[in-house]
Structures are given as C-alpha cells and as structure tokens.
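Sanity check

After download, print the first record. It should look like this:
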Amino acid sequence: MYLNKKPFNVILKSVCFLIFFTFGLQSIGQRLKRLNLGMSQPQPEETLPKSRVPIQPAIRKEKKIIPALLEQTSPDNYKLTAGWELSEVYKIIASGESVFNPNLNRKYWYNATVPGTVLTTLVEQGVYPDPYFGINNLAIPDTLCRMDWWYRITFRQPSNQLKEKAWLVFNGINYRAEIWLNKKLLGTINGAFHRGKFDVTGILHSTEENILAVRI
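Expected structure tokens:
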C-alpha cells in the first residue's frame, strides 16, 4: 500500500483554507462588533414599540446669525459660550466651499448647542423631535453616528494683548475629532470626553477674525 501524496496535499490545503476562512469570518465579525455599527437591516416592524401617542412632528427653526461671545472667566482665560454652528461634512463637500472661507454660506448650517452632542443641536433646532417623549426616538435615524460633522465658530482675539503663550483648551469631545484653527491642523482628540490642549501661539490673528473648526 502507498499514500497518493497529490490528493492528500489537495485535501490538506482545503482543510487549511476552511480553517483560515472560518477564523477569518470570526475575526471580521469581532471587528464589526467593536465598530458598533448597529443592525445591518431595519428591525421588523412588528417588534417595534407601540404607543397611543403619535410621533411628534419636528418644526425646523430659522437659522440665526449669532456672534461669538468670549466670556472672561479669569484675568487670562476666556470661554467661547455662543456663536457655534454645525453642519454635515457631506454638505460642505457638495457645496465646493471651504469651512475656512470668511464668506462661507452658512444659511443651511444649524445654530449649535455647545456643550452638547450633535443630536442635542438637531433636536433643539427642530430637525428631530424630542427623543425622550413617547416613541419619538423612532424618528431619529441611526445613520447620524456614522457621519462626520463640522463645528465652526469665528471670533476676534480679546482686545487686551495675549501674553507670551496662548492655549486652546477643550474640556471634552466625544468621540474623535480634528481641531483646526485658521487652516492649521492643531491636532486630534481620540476617546470619550478626553481633554485637549493645543498651543495656538502665533496662530491666532490679532487684527482679523479667527476661524475655529472642529471635525467630529
């Protein structure tokens, strides 16, 4: 008796391929779980929650021009408390404009609630109904968490001259962001509510508007 090596090698390769393919699928599945992409198809309608109260209609608010407000919190510290705006990144790309254009058309932007999440702004601006009322949350698409967003604000340097060093501080961003000031990438923040501190010495404009843009 003898062993035909050729068929044996084919069988061995097939078994190895099946093992590799199986573990490969498991690895892909584990990665998808870590990405938290949610369901791959709509939930069956019969399993959705029901309510006697219909979903409330959302009434879009008119966009307002709100100037930036620098609130002085200490002799050397200022907080940007008003003037933030928000837009979907794909809209900026489609417009062909740059977020650093001083004359950027922001008519379709939202007046942003800061601090707050993207959804906080969209609910406050009347894009979606309050998710904490009835089953209004069913009207909010889960695609919002898979999109990039721009936060933008323009402001002037405080009238009193800054000292030798100037820092831009974020007390927390969720979850990942790029920080841009006057077309310069200052750095990134990665992690839930991680604090970011960036040296903006020499980047701030002293005689013209500063454009701060944060890509979430």
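If your output differs, re-run the checksum step. Summary of this record's structure: The mean pLDDT is 84.
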